[in-house]
Amino acid sequence: MHRILVSRCLLGQPVRYDGGCHGPFDHLQRWQLEGRIVPVCPEVAGGLPTPRAPAEIPGGQGQQVLDGRRLVVNNLDEDVTAEFVAGARIALGLAREHDVRIAVLKSRSPSCGNQRTYDGSFSGTLVAGEGVTAALLRREGVMVFNEQQLDEAAEALALLERVP
Ligand code: SF4
Q1: Whose CA is nearest to atom 6 of ligand 1?
Q2: What's the CA-to-centroid distance between 162 and ligand 1, angstroms?
Q3: Residue 130's beta-bridge partner residues?
């Protein structure tokens, strides 16, 4: 049985920066019953509290953070790069430990976003880009989906488990 790495805030756990969460989602509830889900909140795992100041990546590219070319900064102008990178490494460690090939992560987050992220201006402006964790997982071969792509994630899972 394949395990799926999932953002904790998508599982109704109140770990979002403002103490909020999301869901429920049918696919995630089924996968939870099947025992497939490996939950992770990279920002909390990396040492940040909840609630916490919202953070963004200037330019919105998590790959650049991983390459040491950008900092992650919160709206108090504090550098939280180390916590974000630590959380991404913990998420990758969990993915390796559980042989994860598929992740479902929260869209638009500076950690978890897989397609779009905020641009660092704290003005609600989105750009094409990935969060730090999404970028590291994708770089290491994990397929990363968001909560609006649960059908695609289910298709990818079915393909992985198709009997030859
Ligand atoms: Fe944690 Fe990711 Fe959800 Fe943010 S989006 S609260 S980092 S799980």
Answers
A1: 16
A2: 31
A3: none
Residue 157 belongs to domain spanning: 4-162
Half-sphere exposure of 128 (CA within 13 A, CB side): 0
pLDDT tens by residue, 92-137: 999 999 999 999 999 999 999 999 999 999 999 999 999 999 999 9
How far is Cα 10 from Cα 105, in angstroms, rounded to an integer? 8
| Type of residue numbered 106 | K
* Strand, helix or coil for residue 51: coil
Distance of alpha carbon 79 from alpha carbon 67, whole angstroms = 16
Question: What would the two tokens of residue 74 be?
Answer: 């919160």
Answer yes or no: pTM beyond 0.85: yes
Q: Count of domains in the chain?
A: 1
Structure tokens, 19: 């103490």
Copy the structure tokens of residue 126: 């989105």
For residue 10, which atom of ligand 1 is closest to its CA?
3
